[in-house]
Amino acid sequence: MLAPSPWPGGAPGGSFRFSPSPAPPAVAQCGPALVPGLRVEAEWVPGRWHCGQVVEVAPDGAVTIRYDDGYLQKNVAHGKVRAAANGPAIASGPLRAGVPPPPPPAVYPWPEDGTAKPGEQVYVGEDEDPCTKKFRKRLSIAVDKGRTEEVQALLLDAHKVGLQGPEVRWARDVLLAAEAAEFRKSAVMLVEDAVESGDYWKLQAAMQAAVGCGLGAEQAPRLKQAMRTHKARSEASRELRRAAQVRDVPRLRTAIEGALKVHLEEDVVKRARATLRALQARESARKELRRAAEAKDMTRLKAAIIAAEKSFQEKVPEMCGDDPKEKQELDAARAALRTHAMSRLSRLADAEDIESLGKGLQELSGHGVPAEEWQHFEQRHSQLKTRQRCQDKLAQATKARDKDAIVAAMEDAKVVLEQNSEVIEIAQKTVSMLEAEETMAKTRAEVAEELTRSVHGEDQRRLIAALTAADAAGFTSSEVAFARERLRRLRARVGAAQELREAAHSADMYRLRAAITAAKRAEVSESELAGAREALRCLELQADVRRSIEAAVTAKDVELLRRCIEDGKQAGLNRQEVARAQKHLQKLGQSSVGRELAEALQTGDAVRLRAAARAATDAGMTGAEVESAWHRLRELESHSWLRQQLDGALASNDAVRLQAAIKQAELGGLGPPELSAAKRHLDALNARLHARQELHLARTSGNPYALLAAVRQGQEAGLPQHELEVARRSAEAFSGFDTGPDTVPQLSAPPTQPQVQLTAERLEPPTMPPTILGSLYPPPSQCHGGDAGDPGFYQQLQQPARPGVQRQQSWPPIQPVPDSPLSVGVLTPFANSPAKQVPAPHWTAI
User: Fold this and answer.
1) Spatial CB neighbours of 12, under 8 Å, sequence gap ≥ 6
2) Coil, helix or strand for 125?
3) Which helix (H) or strand (E) segment is 646 a member of?
């Protein structure tokens, strides 16, 4: 544990430094008697003990310890505490080893004792015993190294023996400085607690403590800012209460916004928001009451009254005051509802609407209308019911074609009905028709037969017509019951099929499932059921995809969300849902895609860079980073393709193709280290071609010396051995001896056609493609068998070039694959893009 030396600037004559305190000796944990103020050591982690002071001892044995670094730990077990070995234990007892005995008073006349006069030099005897000198040295070392506890112990020993001197004064000053630092530390902690608590009085106390310990310039601005914040929050709280008391919704909303800006307590803001919602609900109910009363709509007015009663019955928030206008508006709305109800009853009574009039009378009991005001409406309703009953009775008798019942009903109806009433006229006609019932027997038979045929068919219209005819012919319900049941089934089938189609188009899974069940009961055709089942399967699949998308968004799983989007597209989700899912995918994927793109740019791997760039594009990323990635990808793929072309040209041993490949590589940005081997190979190929030409010219000229010189040049150029053997045999045939005489100077195969030379340096990057004057012939194929020994072999290989018959031809560039980087705008040598094509012109004989 490091303890700083409180002496300003460190020890006298030295710099400020930290020194590890000496490890306390092991103390047997025998359960010391713990009391507040006792210096102890506590085990912070297994094996690490820290010094501190007991602050409080709980009844259960647990203690609260404040460590030397200011940290306060509560509920420390008794077994993890031991007495401090080097703590200040002020008690009478023998001195420790090394403490000098008390000096005689006359030997040490220190100024503290008052025996020395001001200005007098203090004499420290040279005859101090070694023990005292050693003690002073130990005290100086302890102060110098900042061992506070050891200094305290040594000062206590010095106090016991009465030892004084500059070392003792120095040690006391060091301890005083340490206590001052501890006081400032506690003051800073008090400031922190006050700022976090937000209590005005704690802030005032912290301000006084900071100023008292000399930290005013450092902590005062912070405490003042905390006080200003406390004042702003208090004003925001008061504004909330005032706005709620006057029930001003805009003012309350503004006050809530101001409270949020100053970070007011969360519970106060919650209560204010609850008050705002309650006020808005009450205001909305009052507005709806006024609008319903103005619209004169009973249903709407009644619903508004119910909603207002429910809203007004709720408990008023604590912050709100009472509003007497609410009850007045509610009473006015109820009076308007009673007025509208009475007006409606009058209209229904005049219109003789029995059913609506009865419902209106039932509703009046809930509107608070007195019974004497609507009693005459009840009498009118009773009269209308009696007349309706007579009409129904007469109509039933007429429909039953019972002559006696019709006559009896007519007698009863004459009391309440007029003589020329339509019902009575119908009854009279019915009586006359009953007399002709016999004449209709044949008609009934025909109708019955038609009804039977239509029941066994599938024509709904025919069945309805037959039932109509049966009704006209007087068939009873039991007689046409089977036909009506058949008609009901046909209608149910048609309705179920129509519902099935509508449910399939509505995209409602539950409605479609219910429609399929109803269609099965109605015996709808299997083809329509199959289409509905397929639609239901698609809807269920879409529902599963929606749930999967929600789960993937919740789990933030990019891959799962991407698969769910693909499944949703296949399942037929609408564009809005797919767009929302893709937006979530873009948000989730941009962070990981950006990191992968940056790593791929650093690695230089074209495959990984392409995958990262595509992923970034799919994720919707734009900007310079994506553009640089695509540019780098095109550059890498272009270099890769150029290296492939260069390797192919090297493997083919074709000088023209190799020269074109080198030119393309230079234009594509490949450096000289990558082209050096290709250029050396090109020089070797040109040298072999030149050596073959020299052999051919020397053999054609018949000069054995030139032929031998050409053979030596071919050996240096690396021509195949069989070609050189053929040339040697030709030289022997010309001269009759193996080797010609030596020449001075030695012949070095002078070129017979100097024009067959490169016009540009092959090792330097040319400003334009190298040009060969004369003829460039392809290298001859390998000789096999006896062809190499044939004297006319070389005559069949080539023909000499004819001067003047020359033309410049641009070699066609090698076509890259469509996926090559050259196809995306980097060194594209296609014939259809002349702006990017860089041809390599060569001279070729016709």
Assistant:
1) 170
2) coil
3) helix 624-652
What φ, ψ does residue 360 adopt, rounded to 5°?
-65, -40
Q: Which tokens is 262 given?
A: 């100053």
Helix, strand, or coil (residue 92) = coil
Sheet with 39-45: strands ordered across:
72-76, 63-67, 48-57, 39-45, 81-83
Q: How far, in Å, CA of 21 to CA of 1, rounded? A: 6
Averages of pLDDT over runs of 10 residues in the chain (846 residues) are 35 33 38 77 79 87 84 85 61 35 38 38 52 81 80 82 79 80 79 75 78 74 78 80 77 81 79 78 74 69 69 60 63 67 68 67 58 63 73 77 76 66 74 72 80 80 83 81 81 80 78 81 78 80 82 78 80 80 72 68 73 72 73 75 80 80 77 79 82 82 82 81 81 61 45 38 38 36 38 37 36 39 34 36 33
Note the pLDDT of residue 362.
62
Task: Please name the amino acid found at residue 317.
Answer: P
Question: How many Å apart are CA 747 and CA 329, to the nearest integer?
Answer: 130
Mean of per-residue pLDDT scores for the chain: 68
From residue 365, alpha-carbon distances to 305, 374, 482 in Å are: 15, 10, 47
The residues facing 54 across adjacent strands are 65
Secondary structure letter of residue 374 according to DSSP? S
The whole-number pLDDT of residue 337 equals 66
First-residue to last-residue Cα distance in the chain: 96
Closest of 659, 666, 725 to residue 689, by C-alpha? 659
Residue the block writes with tokens 């709980």: 58
Three state DSSP letters for 162-211: CCCCHHHHHHHHHHHHHHHHHHHHHHHHHHHHHHHHCCHHHHHHHHHHHH
Cis ω before 766 (30° cut-off from 0): no
670 near 643, Cβ under 8 Å? yes
Taking CA atoms, 208 is separated from 217, 696, 756, 834, in Å, by 12, 112, 103, 86
Q: How far is CA 136 from CA 98, 100, 128, 163, 834, in A?
A: 10, 10, 11, 9, 97
* Distance (Å, whole) CA 360 – CA 260: 53
**Rg over CA atoms, the chain:** 58
**Cβ atoms of 354 and 385 closer than 8 Å:** yes
Compute the distance between CA of residue 189 and CA of residue 212 in angstroms, rounded to an integer.
14
Q: Which residues contact 50 (CB under 8 A, 6 or more apart)?
A: 1, 41, 42, 44, 67, 68, 69
Residue 327, by phi and psi: left (phi above 0), alpha (psi -120 to 50) or beta? alpha
In which residue are the tokens 């803001």 written?
Answer: 269
- 48 pairs with which residues across the strands? 45
Does the pTM exceed 0.70?
Answer: no
CA 652, CA 649: separation in Å to the nearest integer?
5
* 22 phi, psi to nearest 5 deg: -65, 140
Question: What DSSP line would sit under 56-73, residue for residue?
Answer: EE-TTS-EEEEETTS-EE
Q: Where are the alpha helices (DSSP H) in 572-621?
A: 575-603, 606-618
For residue 417, how far is the Cα from the chain centroid?
81
Task: Give the separation between CA 64 and CA 10, rounded to whole angstroms.
Answer: 33
Could you tell me where the DSSP H helices lie in 262-418?
266-295, 298-313, 325-351, 354-364, 375-400, 403-416
CA atoms within 13 A on the CB side of 546: 12
**Which of 218, 198, 217, 279 lies closest to 246, judged by CA?**
279
Separation of alpha carbons 303 and 311, rounded Å:
12
Backbone phi, psi, residue 73, to 5°: -115, 130
Residue whose entry in the numeric block shows the structure tokens 């409180």: 6
What is the structure's pLDDT at 595?
66
- Say what the pLDDT of residue 179 is: 78
DSSP 111: G
Q: In a 10 Å sphere around its CB, with 0-12 CB exposed, 13-18 middle and 19+ buried, how is residue 244 labelled?
A: buried
Can you say whether residue 606 is alpha, beta or left, with left for phi > 0 and alpha for psi between -120 and 50 degrees?
alpha
Give the residue carrying structure tokens 């710099």.
Answer: 15
